[in-house]
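# step 3/5: fold
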Amino acid sequence: MDSIIFLIFRRMRPPLITLLLVYTVSILGLTLIPGQDADGNVWHMDFFHAFYFVSFMSTTIGFGEIPYEFTDAQRLWVLLSIYASVIAWLYAIGTILSLVQDKTFKQAVAENKLARHIRDMREPFYLVCGYGETGSALVRGLTDVGYHVVVIEIDEQRSQIIKLENLRDYVPTLHGDARKPLHLQEAGLQHPQCQGVVAVTNDNEANLKIAITSKLLHPHINVICRADSHDYEKNMASFGTDHIIDPFDTFATYLATAIEEPCLYLLQMWLYSGNEEVRLEEPVYPPRNKPWIICGFGRFGKAVYQRLKKEGNDIIVVEARPDLTGLPAGGVVEGRGTEAETLMQAGVEQAAGLIAGTDNDANNLSIVVTARELNPELFFIVRQNYSDNSAIIRAVNADMVMQPSRIIADKIRVLLATPMLNEFVSLAYHQDNEWACELVSRISALVVRHAPQLLEIVIDDEQARAVVDVLNGGQKVYLKDLLRDPWKRRDHLNCIVLMMQRDDERIPLPGDETELRIGDRLLFCAGRSGFTRLEWNLQHDNVLSYVRLGRVEKHGWLWSKLTKK
């Protein structure tokens, strides 16, 4: 508000001074020029009547000459005053119009309106810095599951695009630089309802500055940052950043998991999809202990190179600018990989897998098409840099697609919306492939074709009132009771409990005979509309009594009277 007032006074100072001078001179002239009354006596207009006359005269409306008819001298002065005041008002109105259209003024008004809206927010929200490929996917994912989001975007065009998006909730968007503490504060960094800050710009330096500012101004807030450089990751970690996500290292881990434990990789992809409209991915089996070709030795190429080497694979690297990217231990074939000659030199006919990992989608597609003509049996991995190219990326029918923005958005959405899922996946990495295959089979039976839904439930008064009432009454509730169908008690609900958290203990896939306690956290997995009947078991006393005991214990007053008779 201070900046708006300052802009108004700074721009309106010359026209206001001009108006003040015109009014002063006009009023002073009317008081000094003598007039005549009806009897021919000389009189002088007082300041009040002069001010009154000049005020309505300036509007060019005119109420006549007061209190008596003017002399020629007075009329001449009024004539000059009319032209002077009209010009002064035109100057002032023109300045007002130009001020209203001024870009800086409009931005200041928008910032003030946004800051006022954020101050009035009474529900928890997350602050997302950056609305590019990753930010847009993350905002949509969070709003789809009912979370409130505030966005800061430095690019004005992208900050306007969000208004055209078909999101489930209104997303306040500040056009500003998130590296500036003032803009972070205006966007609600220090608001008591701000639950976390997510820095997903495409600039490591900006993300680092956001993390530092957030931790200094709001030490206890949850901060999640994107980083694709190990040096920046270490710097962010030194300031206490809670989660640092590198899309290249993350995908390299996914690839290693797909090679070693394909069922665990498939399970993770299903659970991380987060959208019940998405169809289940098919299992993939990357070649193991066989030659690979990596086209592009940038940050992504280096990450997968190290993981594949660790798995014992022979690797040939194709790179157009090895002087910039550096040389791998096994040497490099110089070229882009889009030429058949380069791929032949890299041994494409004997290779088992190929990774098109440059930062150019067109080159990646060309690499795949050329390599497929030379060796149709290759296992193809394609890096997709821009979401707009999804249609043509799907057209090449690659075995795996690496899209940095999707990887980061899915990872952050899980950390914010379903944190227990991240812990469950961490525990799943300590299990063998047979354990994961059995769980994949159970989930596929639940959901058939579409991705599963996930729900975190806390056994408390808000989310499980009926269960808490039974436990407080000294009775027991078992996990199997919640998983019975409230319409047909002998049937099992279309749900699986993936994990139970009790105090500091985390139990993956707890048994049906597990006794529940107040404060337990449960992670459920279900198919479409699988949680509707579960809510009845959790919240309604009569329903819970039926699924537990096979009868309804509590009745209303009327039913109790009828039962006695």
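# step 4/5: annotate
The chain has 24 helices and 18 strands.
# step 5/5: archive (pending)
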